[in-house]
Each structure stands twice: as structure tokens, then as C-alpha cells.
Amino acid sequence: MTQSQALDMLKTGGNVFLTGEPGTGKTYVLNQYIAWLEAAGLRVAVTASTGIAATHIGGMTIHSWSGIGARDHITPYDLDQIVSREKTVKRVKAAQVLVIDEISMLSAGTLDAVETVCRTIRESSEAFGGLQVIFVGDFFQLPPITPRGEETRYAFEGRAWAHAQPLICYLDEQYRQEDEMFLSLLRSIRKRQVEEDHYTLLSEQKDIAYEDIEPTRLYTHNADVDAVNAGKLKELPGRSRKFQMAATGNKQVLLGLVKSCLSPELLELKEEAMVMCTKNNFEAGYVNGTLGRVVRFDADGYPVIETADKTEVTIKPSTWDVIEEKRVLALIEQVPLRLAWAITVHKSQGMSLDAAEIDLSKAFVYGQGYVALSRVRSLEGLKLNGMHPNALKVDPKVGQADERFVAASAAAEREFEIMDDTEVSKMHEAFVTALGGKLPTAADIKAAKAVTPVERVKKESTLETTLKLLKDGATVEEIAKERKLAENTIWSHVEKLVEEGQLNRADVLRQTEKLPDWDEQYERLKDAIDELGTEKLKPIYEACNEEIDYGVIRVARLLYDMQESEQVF
Length: 569
Prior knowledge:
This protein is α/β, with parallel strands linked by helices. Helix content is about 45%, strand content about 15%. The chain is built from 25 helices and 20 strands. The protein has a six-stranded parallel β-sheet. A five-stranded antiparallel β-sheet has the order 14-13-12-11-17, with no helix packed on it. Strand 15 (about 320-325) and strand 16 (about 325-335) form a beta hairpin. Helix 3 (about 50-55) crosses helix 12 (about 250-260) and helix 19 (about 460-470) packs across helix 21 (about 485-500). The chain is globular, with a radius of gyration of 26 Å. The N and C termini lie far apart (about 55 Å).
């Protein structure tokens, strides 16, 4: 399946498992979809199974988001405790789409716990409480951590997965590896068809083809990595330059963000140090995993690296953040580099390495060898030092499940191919409008992609700007035009400000002054809300014969809820 086909399926609002081999662009498609959702005025919760993965996509761990913490199952008592936490309840109720990245490292029990929390808080028997849920990842990657003696239970084996019944979008266009022989080897591992010729091929990888670039050594243990990097840096002559990480935001969230960032809090470099870029910056000319050698420091003191293709790149500070409902909870800034003589296999997940020296003699879990090998773009950049007899083995359960995923993806692709573009577009619009959003234009999507975390932090809070304009008597329509934002975005601001108590009934009523036939429309809407509730807009819209604008419905819903909760007084 192509990236564009997968994106079309995501936009229909169904639950989806977005998967594919490393290098097929899963994160790229995910980021495209998140930008589309935000441009449509919808609220997406972006999470991942690990802190490292969360930093790649600007989200938080699924454990923190759902409130389950380190649990891999929850008791009725645990559930009572979780649903009593105001922040967790607000977060889960506010979301309309839930993304869970690196799903391979989430156990079935943990995913079941998350789903139970969502259904309980959202008071819905639907899967994940009616959220659209997007699982992203590849089960051939690192598996969940399982207590010794217990069988690994993958996310796809649990009740929550079965309840969600995700469409399978299996990406098959390769963007990382261009070496056909190497691709054939990796696919043979996935299909559990490794033969003697494959071991022979790997045994011949004694050196890499790049001059002046040392390969990054991949180890299975942190102690090996720390010892190699510290020793190599100490051997270099000359004075070191130190770069201290800057941080702002919620202290607890910051702790997790700092811990999971691939760049250290204190980065120490010298000329001739081997380094690795830890973020994607296509404009500057590097990606997460680009290797280089520090050749000098520029006039501002920033490192200039020479990459494998002899290109010089100045590496300036970058940011990592945790965002919730378009609000930055925590932000760190650091030069996006780390020493690269060595790194763990675990931390390499999600990277595309130019060159790697791999020791698989201690590979002790299914998939570890595959993860390490699939980080490298070609055999030219691979040097292999050791091989455990089980290093290329994958879990038979994963292999069998993958066969089912491939078949299901092909079936979904065929089903969508017989639809014309108009039919698919109508499905996209139906999904967005059902959640109170508006189908975004190309300009809306471009604007959503353009806003960086730094801009979000440095500029005046978008909520505060909307609040000021509302207090000055502006309508939602006027604010949207002035701020060049979608009206649905401004309405989401209004709802958030009401929730936080910064807007009262009189403020909301001002929005009705310029609405024609407001009193008559409100009576119709009130009757519909009495019967259907306020959770979803579309049923109310349909109950009024699709004659009342969604903006008017949102005003009525706010006033109704405020009255019900006695905020009127």
C-alpha cells in the first residue's frame, strides 16, 4: 500500500493499524495525518509506548496519557483511582483521535488496560470509548518487556485489539534501504526463511565503505555504550565544548522528556568526535541517525560536522516537546547530537544509520537482530562483529500475524480502489463534520504544519488571544477571520475557556446577539439535546433536519451544559 492510500484510509475515521517494514515512512504518514486533523479543528492525542518514541512524534507515553502508569493490567480499585483524577478525565474526554506509536512494545494487557480506562471515562461501550484509534508500528521490532518465565503477549493478541477491529494499512514502498540484496535479506528474516546463504552474506561484512566515518557500534547493553563513548572522547586531543540543555514546562513531564531524549542534558564534544544527529531536519541536510565527524566549531560556537558524503553541516540547537491539545506541556532545547561511537539497539529504533558496527553475539530476545540490521541503509554501511545463533530469529507468532496483516491490507486496498475519489472525499467530510470539525483546505494543512513548538511557546498563548478578543465583544466568525484560523478552531478555544472557568454564561450569550432566529433555534436544539445528549454534534444536527449550522449547535451545547452544571449562577 502506498503512503497516499494509507492517508486516505486514515481520514475515513476508522480504527487503523499503520504498519510496514522499517523505512517505508510510517512516521511520515502519521505526521501528515496529525497535521490534517489539527487543520480540521479536531483534537488528537499523540502517544507512544516508550519515551524515546514519544519524543520522535511530539507526544507523551500512552501510560502517562491514560493514567495507568507502569501497570500492565488494572484492578477495579486501580480503575476507580484513575477515573478520580481530574486531569486524566479531562484529557481522555477531550480527545477525538488517539495515536499509539511503536505498538510492538506495548503488551496486550497494557493495551487492554488503556482501552478499559477510555471506555470508563468516556462512558461508552464502543472500542476505546468511541475514539478513532491509530496503532502505528511493526511487530518485528522490539517486543514488550515481559517478566522472566512469562509468555510474550503482543498487542494484537488482546481483547482491545479485537474490539477495535483496525483496518490494516501495510506500507510497502521502501525509502530507507536502496540495496536490493540487503532488502532481500531483511525480508527473508521477516518471512522466517533465513538460509545459509544469508549467514554467509552477513559474515562477509567485515568493514564499511566510507572513509573518515567510523561506524556506530550497536550494543544490547547500556554499560557497553557508555564505556566506549567516554573512552573514545577522552582519547581525542584538544579542549572540549559543552552544551547544556535548556528546559521549560511541567516538571514531571519534563523529567520523562529529558530521560527519553537521545541528546544528553550535557553534551560534550571535541573536534574529530564521531557524532550522530538525533532529529530530522531535512532543510539543514540531516536526519535522525545521520553520522558525522566534528570538523570545527563556528563563530557562534556551534559544531560543524562532515557527513559520510563529505557535506559540511552546521548543527544548531533544536527542540523536543510534549504537546497536549495544541498546548506545549514541556519543551527542551539542545544541540541535536550525541556521541556516536556506540548506541544501544533499543535507542536506535526509528533511526536510519549511514554506517553501523553490530555485535549480535549477545542478542537475547526475538527481533533484536532484525532491529539492528534494519537501522542501516545498505550493506556498504554494515560491519558485523558477532552473531548469536538466534540473532536472526523472529517470534513465530509475529510471523503468522504478519501474514494475516499483509492479506488484510491487500483486501482493504482492493476495496478502496473500486471507490471513486468523490465517494472517498465524502467519507472524509462525514468523519470530520461528525466530530464538529471542518474539512481542511490545502492552505489550512500548510499552516498547521508550519507552526513549530518554539513558535507555540514564544508567542502569546493562542487561548489568551482568543479570550481577549471575546471579552472585547468579537464574534467567533470575526476572530477566525482576524487570526486566519478555522472557525472550528476558535470554537474549540471557547469550549476550553468555558471549561477552565475563564468565560461565563454572559460571555457565551454574546455570541448569540448576531445570530438570526436564535431563540427559536435554541428551543429546537434544546429538545434535541434533551433526547440525544451533548457528547456528539452530528446526531443533534440530523435531529434538526440539518437546518441549523454547527456553530449555532456549539453555542447551544455550551449554554445547555453550563446550565446543567449550575455554572449559570
